[in-house]
Amino acid sequence: MCPVDAFREGPNFLVIDPEECIDCTLCVAECPVDAIVPEDELTAAQREYLALNATLAKAWPRIVEAHPALPDANTWAKVTEKRKWLETSAGVADATTDLPGTAP
After folding, report:
1. Could you give all domains of the chain from N- to C-terminal order, each with its CATH number?
2. Rounded mean pLDDT for each run of 10 residues along the chain, 104 residues in total
3. What is known about what this protein does (predicted)?
């Protein structure tokens, strides 16, 4: 999907490495939940993800082959404010329990 393999995969989140991305926008149409937005179309609330992508892309492994959508992708597509559910291995983690669709 990405011609320069700019995607990185964390425990429950994907990021795009801004140093690798060539802004071709091929990924925008491919995303099953419309989670990818060109930088010039980001809302003020989404802007924090630019720095987050840059930081996490340095710590997470490159994705080199397409994966099917996660089984709960449609559930997550309806969740706003996903930042608090982000799990990382780079020390940026927030809450990691009580995820939508899971029992408490």
Report:
1. 7-85 (3.30.70.20)
2. 91 91 93 86 89 92 84 82 76 42 41
3. Ferredoxins are iron-sulfur proteins that transfer electrons in a wide variety of metabolic reactions.
